[in-house]
């Protein structure tokens, strides 16, 4: 502690601490009005069927275009939103914006696919997510199979009791839920079995290893086998190479998401992807 070490040292410590966090503090302050100023948008990344490479879904990913600093990664601003209590508003907006977009695509006659929305830990703890989802679906007149949710492994582990209840509610509403970033937490097989989930997303870290020298895809293939034992469908995220795709396909992975198949893109570009999917 700087204070315990006397006045002189405190003078040196304080500016360092401030400098480290000032940028984030300013950014957090900017985030406060970002939604109202129209700086946030949802982008869409395709998910494809592993066997046919056909489009079968998409993940909605939030983007922030800062007026001075340009695009800010959600890896940076989602944690800020969580700390500052802004996540509730942003998370609610995300669900509504995705439903609004699905309705627009439907009205345009496009062949829509289910879109997954990420739910963060704080949002999950603070909000009645099933209620929010029900309201958004009703407002935009959407069937529940057009919206799915992604909850991270760590979120489920930290809130296990409540998570089981909420997942059962979502199941009753026919909302599919995937466990996201799987393999980065510490859940055991038996633990996972208590959650009524429909899909498991293998974290990019394990997909990355495939085809790398000195590493292997053994963890990924073990996860696929385990997930199938639990009747979960398996999505590999961050698939970038044909070697990764071929290995995962050979080991029975059900769906792919990654730059090899498509980057996250603005709604308009995603609309073109939907339109093109009709031909294939
Ligand atoms: P996530 O849910 O695991 O999303 C997948 C991330 O992997 C996305 O990063 C995506 O752009 C990236 N990705 C997909 N394919 C590839 C690939 O082939 N190579 C590489 N290198 N990356 C790939 P993004 O968009 O930066 O989002 C990062 C994280 O931020 C997300 O991880 C999610 O945890 C969070 N996030 C994004 N949007 C939202 C949101 O609307 N709400 C909440 N609560 N969290 C969000
Ligand atoms: Mg996700
Ligand atoms: Mg993920
Ligand atoms: Mg991830």
UniProtKB/TrEMBL annotation:
Q: Which protein is depicted?
A: Diguanylate cyclase
Q: Which residues of the full protein are shown?
A: 574 to 853 of 853
Q: Can you give the residue ranges of the EAL domain?
A: 24-278
> To which species is this protein native?
Dechloromonas denitrificans
């Amino acid at each position: 502690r700087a204070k315990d070490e006397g006045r002189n040292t405190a003078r040196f410590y304080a500016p360092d601490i401030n400098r480290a966090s000032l940028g984030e503090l300013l950014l957090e302050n900017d985030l406060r009005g970002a939604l109202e100023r129209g700086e946030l948008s949802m982008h869409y990344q395709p998910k494809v069927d592993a066997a046919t490479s056909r489009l079968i879904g998409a993940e909605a990913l939030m983007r922030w275009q800062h007026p001075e600093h340009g695009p800010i990664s959600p890896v940076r601003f989602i944690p800020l939103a969580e700390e500052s209590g802004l996540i509730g508003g942003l998370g609610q907006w995300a669900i509504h914006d995705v439903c609004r977009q699905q309705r627009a695509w439907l009205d345009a006659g496009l062949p829509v696919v289910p879109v997954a929305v990420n739910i963060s830990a704080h949002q999950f703890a603070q909000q009645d997510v099933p209620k929010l989802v029900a309201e958004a679906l009703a407002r935009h007149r959407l069937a529940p199979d057009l919206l799915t949710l992604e909850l991270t492994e760590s979120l489920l582990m930290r809130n296990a009791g409540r998570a089981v209840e909420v997942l059962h509610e979502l199941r009753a509403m026919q909302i599919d839920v995937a466990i996201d970033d799987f393999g980065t937490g510490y859940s055991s097989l038996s633990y996972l079995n208590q959650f009524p989930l429909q899909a498991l997303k293998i974290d990019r870290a394990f997909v990355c290893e495939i085809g790398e020298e000195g590493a292997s895809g053994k963890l990924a293939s073990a996860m696929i086998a385990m997930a199938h034992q639990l009747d979960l469908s398996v999505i590999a995220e961050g698939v970038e190479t044909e070697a990764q795709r071929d290995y995962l396909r050979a080991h029975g992975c059900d769906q792919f998401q990654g730059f090899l198949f498509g980057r996250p893109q603005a709604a308009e570009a995603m609309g073109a992807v939907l339109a093109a999917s009709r031909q294939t």
